[in-house]
Structure formats: structure tokens, C-alpha cells
């Protein structure tokens, strides 16, 4: 397919572009600062939070599919008003352009933060591990913008009446390939530092995702969309938690409201379930910090092997 990827130069976008191109798709990259074309057939600089620019790039390239990753990508990195406006308008504009201009498939990037962990007044899940049926409780501008993007996708799914296939992906904390060898993550810490100091990853329930695994999920989802229910939402996460210690011991330390459910998470299994993605599109994550982090950073013991 011809696939337009917004946010193509980002830490997730670069891997998505590479994965789609390697799978044989013609990729058009769109970003405010797109950089070199790399494996893209074409690149374009555009601000898709401007609805007119969103329409312009879709009309110019006429893709069969759009993977919308462009966004302010982290909570509290910008003002709340700017974060909400940019992220919601970009999702709306891309969805509307897709419906109006005949795009066949659209994937929208959401976030696990819609679940609401980290709320200042405390957070208690309905159950653990978390799956896509768990209620969303966004409490900041970023998580609210992602919940709104999901709702926009659902609305356009209804508006398109089946003519466009939609899906949303909630990628966990994305780790780009270079970050395994010491480059800073989006929080400014290295992966080794996040493992050595559980309070860093504990804030986000120890979730993470190798960007290449995420790219493989996007490609498999694009292929499967005609055969699965329209408007589905999927978690995308690693096969384990970003932790050397049992998650059940650590979670109540950082999120007291999880105490009565923490024992439902075995060993260092992930808190976010990807069973739905495996069931509907056949995707399973392959990479973890145990396979990707250089040996001198990760000392593996029998206790650290995930049970799944």
C-alpha cells in the first residue's frame, strides 16, 4: 500500500517508516521537521494540527492508508492548552481528511495514559492486568487529548459507515533502537537508569515498548484491518515490565491503590495486556530489555525471567 505516516521523524515514527518500507509499502513521511527521506518514497514538512494542512497532504499524496503518530508526545512538556489543541486538532483533521478524500485505512496513535494512573488524588484500577476494556480516566491535558483522539476515531468510524477502516494503538513508553545503547529516552533518563531506579518507571506502571515491535504491530494491523471489527483500540507493550523486581512488590509502593490487585501480576509480567492484539491480528512483542540492553547493563537471573 501507499502509506502516509505523520510524525515520521519521531522516535516511534522512524521505526514505523523503516518497518513499513521493509514490508514493501510505499511510505510518505510527514513531519514538521522531516529530515532526510531515508526509506520514505517522499517526505513533506507540514503541521497536521492545522486542518487545512492535514487535508493538503492527504490530497497531494492520495495514500491508501494513514498512520497518524504526529503529536506533542509527552505530558507536561508544553502548556496544557497547547498540548490539547495540537493533539486533538491533528487527530480530527487527519480523520476528516481520510473520510473526505477516500483513504481506506487509518491508524491513530493514542496512549496508555488514558487509563489515568498517576492522578494527584491517587489511582485505583478496576483490575490488573489492564486491558482495552478498562475504563479510561484521563486527568491531564495530554491523556485527555489522547482520549479525545480515540473518541474522534470512533465518531468518524460511524460517519464513514464502513468506507474507511479505523483503529487506534496505545503504544507504551517507546524505546528507540539507539536508546538501548545509552541514548537518552524521552524523559531524559537512560534505560539503565530507569531499571536501576524503579521510581522512574514506576510512575508509568513499568510499561515500555521497543519501537521496532511497535512498527511490526502497525504493519500487521494495517493488513488485518479489513478483517477485524472497525474502530478497535489496542495496547502495544513489551512482553515484560521494565523492572528487575517483581511488579507485585513494586506497584503498591508507587500506586497504593493497586495493592489489592497487584498480586494478579506474576513476576515481572507487564501490567498492560497485549492479548487482544495477539488474538485479533496475531501480533506478539519480541523484544525486551533482557534481549536488547547490552550485557554489562543487564544482569539476568532466573528470578528475572518473565513468566509469559
TrEMBL record:
Indicate the segments forming the NAD-dependent epimerase/dehydratase domain, all copies.
3-235
User: A Pfam family this protein belongs to?
Assistant: Epimerase
Top-level taxon in the UniProt lineage: Bacteria
> What is the name attached to this protein's record?
NAD(P)-dependent oxidoreductase
Amino acid at each position: 500500500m501507499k502509506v502516509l505516516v505523520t510524525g515520521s521523524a519521531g522516535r516511534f515514527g522512524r521505526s514505523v517508516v523503516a518497518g513499513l518500507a521493509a514490508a514493501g509499502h510505499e511510505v510518505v513521511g510527514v513531519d514538521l521537521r522531516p529530515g532526510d527521506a531515508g526509506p520514505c518514497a517522499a517526505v513533506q514538512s507540514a503541521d497536521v494540527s492545522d486542518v487545512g494542512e492535514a487535508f493538503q497532504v492527504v490530497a497531494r499524496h492520495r495514500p491508501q492508508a494513514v498512520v497518524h503518530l504526529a503529536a506533542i508526545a509527552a505530558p507536561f512538556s508544553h502548556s496544557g492548552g497547547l498540548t490539547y489543541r495540537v493533539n486533538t486538532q491533528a487527530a480530527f483533521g487527519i480523520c476528516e481528511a481520510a473520510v473526505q478524500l477516500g483513504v481506506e485505512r487509518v491508524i491513530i496513535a493514542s496512549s496508555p495514559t488514558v487509563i489515568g494512573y498517576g492522578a494527584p488524588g491517587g489511582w485505583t484500577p478496576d483490575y490488573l492486568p489492564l486491558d482495552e476494556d478498562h475504563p479510561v480516566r484521563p486527568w491531564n491535558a495530554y491523556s485527555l487529548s489522547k482520549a479525545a483522539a480515540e473518541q474522534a476515531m470512533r465518531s468518524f468510524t460511524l460517519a464513514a459507515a464502513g468506507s474507511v477502516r479505523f483503529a487506534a494503538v496505545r503504544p507504551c513508553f517507546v524505546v528507540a533502537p539507539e536508546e538501548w545503547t545509552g541514548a537518552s529516552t524521552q524523559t531524559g533518563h537512560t534505560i539503565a537508569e530507569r531499571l536501576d531506579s524503579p521510581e522512574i518507571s514506576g510512575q508509568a506502571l513499568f510499561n515500555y515498548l521497543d519501537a521496532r515491535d511497535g512498527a511490526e504491530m502497525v504493519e500487521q494491523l494495517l493488513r488485518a484491518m479489513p478483517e477485524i471489527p472497525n474502530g478497535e483500540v489496542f495496547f502495544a507493550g513489551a512482553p515484560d515490565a521494565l523492572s528487575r523486581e517483581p511488579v507485585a512488590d513494586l506497584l503498591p509502593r508507587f500506586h497504593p491503590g493497586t495493592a489489592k490487585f497487584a498480586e494478579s501480576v506474576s513476576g515481572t509480567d507487564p501490567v498492560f495486556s497485549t492479548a487482544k492484539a495477539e488474538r485479533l491480528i496475531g501480533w506478539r512483542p519480541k523484544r525486551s530489555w533482557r534481549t536488547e540492553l547490552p550485557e554489562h547493563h543487564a544482569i539476568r537471573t532466573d528470578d528475572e525471567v518473565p513468566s509469559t
